[in-house]
Amino acid sequence: MDWLKGRVTDTVKPNLASNSLYDWLWFNIVKSTSTPYSLNTTINMEGLTTNDYLNISYEFKSSGLVQDSAVTPYASIIGLNPTGNKVMALNTQSQMFVNNSGVVSISIKVTQDMINAGTIKLVAYYLGYSTGNIYYRRVKVEKGQILTPYIQSSNDIESLRKDIATSKADIDGMKLIDTGLRNDISGLQASRYNLINDGNIPVVNSQNYPAVIYTLDDNTLKDNEKITVFIYGSILADQRFYMCNTVGDTLVASIPSGGISEKKLYIAKSTWKVKDTNNKLLVYPYLNKTTANNTNIDWIVLVRGHVDGISEWIPSKSDVINMQLNTDVKNLKEAEILDRQDIVKLNQEITGEDALIDANNIKFAQLLGVDIATIKGGIV
């Protein structure tokens, strides 16, 4: 690296290159070709004059490079204006790239064509290699003829800041989505089972007060735990569904009729109140009209948490077990009926075989000229 002596200083100058390749950029060289390899790097010429010099440097490494004996090795970094015309060229000894690594630093005087370009795009040309790999990184373009330590350009840093800000926004968005999903999952878990057993047994035109007493599947609801009650039914227009735990003085939820007495879905989000055995839900038509109540409930669902989206009855854990048991019993009964039918059929077949045997015996006796009773009497 003797060629760098006297051309390196510890003083850091701004990098005029945008997308200055902080990480390695890989080129796979395939036979000698005039096709350019884009470095994805640009130079901003704003503020420069024809009296300025630019020092352009980059770090490189290579592997598996094989020279093509038929072509003179040639390497060049070319600067193109926005229309694709060449406005600068940096020629380098091709031999230095062969299975080597290091830093290339070349100074060039600014020309009017470069200034007129405004923005210069850097591309690389390689001739004289049949195969191999070349890697570039840390392109630096700085005013002057002295190489100073690499830093990213202000444009790259600003772009990085924007990327970080966007990433943070994306992360915050993902956190919100995650929180929403967690809430949805929590709600689904909470509403997976009804806490009321037999909540689908209809209550029809009940005059009672309470109209119905439901038994909960367990007594694990805690004091002030969030709950949601769904009732599909109807009460009188000037009443409300008034729900209590175990006894009538422990209100857990209340839903007004809304001034109509037609069937609809009533929903109440509330908190549980622990009382006594903590496993009952009493549903009252409030205010009580003694014998003039007319309470109808097609189904009721009580779930943990404040949830939405339940529009039909769902079973409790005990309901699920009972439904399965009922299904099993039904299947057993059906199987038993089939078994009995098979037995009857078999008996019928056996009876039919006996009748055929008797008929054959009678015919045989007639051929012998004897009484069938005599033959049967001789069989023991």
SSE layout and pairing:
Layout: E1 17-18, E2 25-30, E3 37-44, E4 53-67, E5 74-80, E6 86-92, E7 101-109, H1 112-117, E8 119-127, E9 129-143, H2 154-190, E10 203-206, E11 212-215, E12 226-234, E13 240-244, E14 251-256, E15 264-271, E16 280-286, E17 295-304, H3 317-368, H4 372-377
Antiparallel strand pairs: 1-3, 2-9, 3-8, 4-7, 4-9, 5-6, 5-8, 10-17, 11-16, 12-15, 12-17, 13-14, 13-16
Fold and architecture overview:
- The protein has 380 residues and is an alpha+beta fold.
- The protein has four domains: 2-152, Jelly Rolls (Sandwich), CATH 2.60.120; 157-190; 203-315, Galactose-binding domain-like (Jelly Rolls, Sandwich), CATH 2.60.120.260; 321-377.
- The chain is 27% helix and 34% strand.
- It has four helices and 17 strands.
- It has helices at residues 112-117, 154-190, 317-368, 372-377; strands at 17-18, 25-30, 37-44, 53-67, 74-80, 86-92, 101-109, 119-127, 129-143, 203-206, 212-215, 226-234, 240-244, 251-256, 264-271, 280-286, 295-304.
- The strands form four sheets. A five-stranded antiparallel sheet has the order 1-3-8-5-6.
- A hairpin with a 5-residue loop joins strand 5 (74-80) and strand 6.
- The protein starts with 16 loop residues before the first strand and ends with a helix.
- Residues 1-8 have low confidence and may be disordered.
- This is BppU N-terminal domain-containing protein.
Give the low-confidence spans.
1-8
Oligomer: single chain
CATH architecture of the largest domain: Sandwich
Overall pLDDT score: 80
State the helix count. Answer: 4
Q: Kindly report the spatial arrangement of strands forming the biggest sheet.
A: 1-3-8-5-6
Q: How large is the share of residues in beta strands?
A: 25-35%
From the alpha-carbon coordinates, what is the Rg to the nearest angstrom? 46 Å
Kindly name the structural category.
alpha+beta
Tell me the total number of β-strands: 17
Reported for the largest beta sheet, the result is: 5 strands, antiparallel
Tell me the domain tally: 4
Inertia-based shape: elongated
What is the CATH third-level topology name of the largest domain? Jelly Rolls
Protein name: BppU N-terminal domain-containing protein
Organism: Peptostreptococcus equinus
